[in-house]
Amino acid sequence: MRRREFITLLSGAAAWPFAARAQQPAMPVVGLVHSGSRNQLADRVSAFGHGLNEAGFVEGDNVTIAYRLAENENHRLPEMMADLVRRRVAVIAALNNVSVLAAKAATTTIPIVFAVNEDPVGLGLVGSLSRPGGHLTGINFLGGELQAKRLEILRELVPGAVRVAVLVNPANPTNTERTLKEVEAAVPAMGLQIQVVRASTGQEIDAVFATLRRERPDALFVSSEGFFVSRRVQIAILAAQCSIPTAYGNREQVEAGGLMSYGTNIADAWRQVGVYVARILKGVKPADLPVVQSSKFELVINHPTARSLGITISPTLLAIADEVIE
Fold first, then answer.
1. Chain Cα centroid distance, residue 232
2. HSE toward the beta carbon, residue 104, CA cutoff 13 A
C-alpha cells in the first residue's frame, strides 16, 4: 500500500466516531409543567425522575427535561406551553389541574400525561378512564373524593369540635364546588356546623384568619387545592397564632407545621406520571394507557403541633397513621 493511500485510510478511520455521533438521534425532550416553584416541588420532581428511571430513562443521559414552573403565577402557563410546542417536545407532563388545562389548549398532537385531583372525565380531559382516547392520559389522585374521610379524622382528633371553618379557593370553582358538596354531605352525620371562608391570594388568606381570630371556630378544614399547598407556611403560621386545629390534603402542609393531613401520596402519583411518560417515549400511544386512579393514601400527623394545641392523639389514630412527625 502506498504511503499516501495509508494516510488517507487513517484519516477516514479517525472520522468514523464523529460521523457515528452525528447520525445519532437527538435526546427526546420532556416538558415538565406546574404552577408552583422548584423549591416547593423538589421531592415530587425527584419522584418523577424515579419513574423515568424505572423504564431506563435518565435525565441528561438519554432524555432532557425542560422545566416550566410558573412560580404561582398561573397567567404565565399559556406562554410556557406555547414555548414547549415551538420546541416540539416529545411529551408534556402537566402536573396539576391548571397546567393540564393550559397544555390541552396549547396542542392537539403532543402527548400529555397529567396528574389531577379531580375526575379527568368531568374536566373534559379524556373520554373515559379505561379508554382515554386522544393525546391525553395520566393519574387521578382523588383529592375531592377524600374530603369526607379527612373531615372524619379531624373530628376524631378534635372530638369536641362543632363549628368547622372550610377554606376554599374561589379562583378554582370546580374544586370549590366539589369540596363543599363532599363536606356538606358528610357534616350532618357528624353533628358539625360549617362556615365557608374563601381566599385566592396571600392577602385574602390574612383576611380569612383575621375573621377566624374573631369568630373562633373549633377547627379549620383546608380544601385540597394547589394554591393552598403553595401557601402552606403562611397558613400554618397563622393557624398556630390563632390556636386553631387544621386539616389538610397534602403531607407538605403538615411538614410545614399543620396538624394533620389525609390524602394521596402525591410523590407516588408523580412517579407514576414518570412511568407513563417513559412508556410514551418508547412508542406507546396515550390513548392506549388507561387513567390510573391513585390507591396509595396516607395519614400524617404533626405531634408537636398537636401538643401545642393541647390535643392528645388517640392510640387508634397513632396506630393507623402512616407517619407521626416528632
1. 14
2. 18
Q: Do domains 29-143+265-296 and 144-248 have the same CATH topology?
A: yes
* Cα-based distances in Å from 13 to 1, 21, 23, 178: 16, 14, 16, 67
Overall average pLDDT of the 75-83 stretch: 95
Please tell me the pTM assigned to this model. Answer: 0.79
Return the CATH number of the domain spanning residue range 144-248: 3.40.50.2300
pLDDT of residue 226: 78
Domain boundaries, the chain: 29-143+265-296, 144-248
How is the chain split among helix, strand and coil, in percent rounded to 5?
50, 20, 35
| Pairing assessment for the beta strands 64-69 and 29-34 based on DSSP bridges | parallel
Q: Are 301 and 257 in contact (CB under 8 A)?
A: no
Torsion over CA: 202, 208, 214, 217 (sign): negative
Segment 253-306, tens digit of pLDDT: 999 999 999 988 888 999 999 999 999 999 999 999 999 988 788 999 999 999
Query: How many residues can be counted in the chain?
Result: 326
Q: Are 303 and 325 spatial neighbours (Cβ–Cβ below 8 Å)?
A: yes
Q: What is the pLDDT of residue 21?
A: 42
Strands 323-325 and 297-302, bridge-based pairing = parallel
